[in-house]
Design a protein that fits this description.
The protein has 331 residues and is mainly alpha-helical. The chain is 63% helix and 3% strand. It is built from twelve helices and two strands; from the N terminus they run αααααβααααβααα. Helix 3 runs antiparallel to helix 6 and helix 8 runs parallel beside helix 11. The longest helix is centred in the middle third of the chain and has 32 residues.
């Protein structure tokens, strides 16, 4: 199947802007939309904080520092994920020069399961290579005590909250102004930077996250032009590496299905940070991200900078139908 599609100039995009008021054009400007999106997350965070304190008061908990884990971790994770979805559905879909819903509740949501499956295979391959190179060893069965933490915090919270924030706000509106390549660079570096503060975080680990996950997840968004594939990849990456293979998730030690430990050279095992900081992940995950980028280029999903689109009248790429398990775009 030939995936190459050349975007055609669409003067109606520029005409649509011309028909808007000055105030509307100001708020639709990509960098203003970026600020609006970030403020939406701030408002959601304040609301979630108030809700948590209300639940704590009802439960008779008055010291959040000694509050039970179901409140500080599990309920917080659920509310953060739900809050991010609400931001996407009620705020982000109305922002920008060409508003769109990046989290459609239709057939495209199936891309979540494609991403989950693909991430599970990719992570399992990386663990297998690490084992063959003597960088990973299973000593027996684990206690599975981290299951809820991985499901809710590394799964729901990280996948939905981080993807909607980093790809649905930061990447999207930076891309609308600077174009795809600069937006991918900035959003990937920011994504790596926030992981530097994680337990066992190092500069190398942060750069590894930026390189492998920043490119992979950004490319998934560019390919499909919605968030479901990226959310599925993020979810599968975290949960499979942590629960199935007992590998530290971005520096956070876990107790998974098996009892495993990194071995030998940290360059191959990732050391205490986990496999994400290893050369194995940097090569394999980054190569996968580049493969997705090539697919996005072939179907014309590269966005030119704002000032170029203003001159040419080319509209932004639109969301694709559900993709196949091999990440092939259906047309």
């Amino acid at each position: 199947m030939d995936e190459t599609i050349t975007p055609q100039p669409q003067p109606e995009a520029a005409q649509g802007q011309a028909g808007k008021s000055k105030a509307r054009r100001f708020f639709d400007f990509p960098l203003i939309a970026l600020i609006s999106g970030l403020l939406s997350f701030v408002a959601a965070g304040i609301t979630i904080g108030m809700a948590l304190y209300a639940v704590a008061a009802i439960a008779g908990i008055y010291d959040m520092e000694t509050a039970p884990v179901w409140l500080t971790d599990y309920l917080t994770a659920i509310l953060m994920a739900v809050g991010a979805v609400m931001v996407a559905k009620f705020s982000l879909r109305h922002l920008g020069e060409e508003p769109r819903d990046d989290l459609p509740f239709d057939a495209r949501a199936r891309d979540f399961f494609v991403g989950l499956l693909f991430a599970a295979v990719l992570m399992s391959l990386m663990v297998g290579i690490a084992a063959l190179l003597g960088a990973y060893r299973i000593d027996g069965w684990g206690g599975s005590t981290s299951f809820l933490m991985l499901l809710l915090m590394a799964g729901f919270q990280a996948a939905f909250f981080e993807e909607i924030l980093f790809r649905g706000v930061i990447f999207r509106f930076l891309e609308e102004f600077f174009g795809s390549w600069i937006a991918l660079l900035i959003s990937a570096l920011l994504f790596g930077l926030v992981h530097w503060s994680n337990p066992n975080g190092t500069l190398l680990a942060a750069l590894a996250i930026a390189l492998e996950a920043g490119i992979l997840l950004g490319a998934a968004y560019m390919l499909t032009r919605n968030l479901w594939l990226a959310i599925g990849l993020h979810w599968g990456w975290n949960v499979v590496q942590g629960y199935i293979w007992d590998v530290s998730v971005s520096g956070i030690a876990v107790d998974g299905l098996v009892d495993a430990k990194p071995m030998g050279d940290p360059l191959l095992s990732g050391g205490a940070f986990g496999l994400e900081a290893s050369a194995i992940a940097m090569v394999m995950a980054t190569a996968t991200g580049i493969w997705l980028l090539v697919k996005a280029v072939r179907i014309g999903h590269i966005v030119q900078p704002w000032w170029v689109r203003r001159r040419t009248g080319v509209a932004l790429p639109t969301s694709t139908p559900p993709i196949s398990p091999t990440l092939s775009v259906k047309r």
